[in-house]
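Please, structure for the following, as tokens.
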Amino acid sequence: MVKTFFSFLFTLIVLISIYLSIFELLLYSFHSPFGVAIKNPIIHEQTWTYLLHQQYISLIEIDNYTIYEKRHLLDVKKLLEQTYNLWLFFIILSSIILIKFFHQIIQNLIFIGIIFNLLLIVLSLNFIKIFDLLHSLLFTNNSWVFSSDSLLIESFPLLYFQHFFALFLIITFLIFFLVQKILLKYSTVFQG
């Protein structure tokens, strides 16, 4: 019972590490929805530079944003920095776990990962409601609610988040598929 619990816990830690790694990868590489022209590409790029590359936390200095949009971007920046630190922690912890318990973890990883992905797909069937729920939990006082003509909404439309999430799911399924293929090919090596 205790061994099963720890095996599940360690698998979950590695899975979180994979999810956070994919999130970080997409965060740095995917900045606009497919097939949508950015209305203000300079402001859009400056916003991403602020969110991802500036080392200090301050209100964004792009005058086109309202004070409310700037405050929300500051909250997003803080959240992204916390996520990055969490990712580093989980990467280190996962590395230690995989070094010590690779054989026990790797086979559970695919099964649990696919179950989590299927759960994410089911939740995404009502994407807008989940999106709103997550935002209301992460950003208090409705500081994330803006009118549809807001520059922030134009730069980061709902479609961006939907595409981001779809890419996230595709990449995770590909990783689980590849790990499964490797396990099947080298099954005698991974037993044990």
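The CA atoms of residues 148 and 190 lie 52 Å apart. Residues 2-41+82-190 form one domain.
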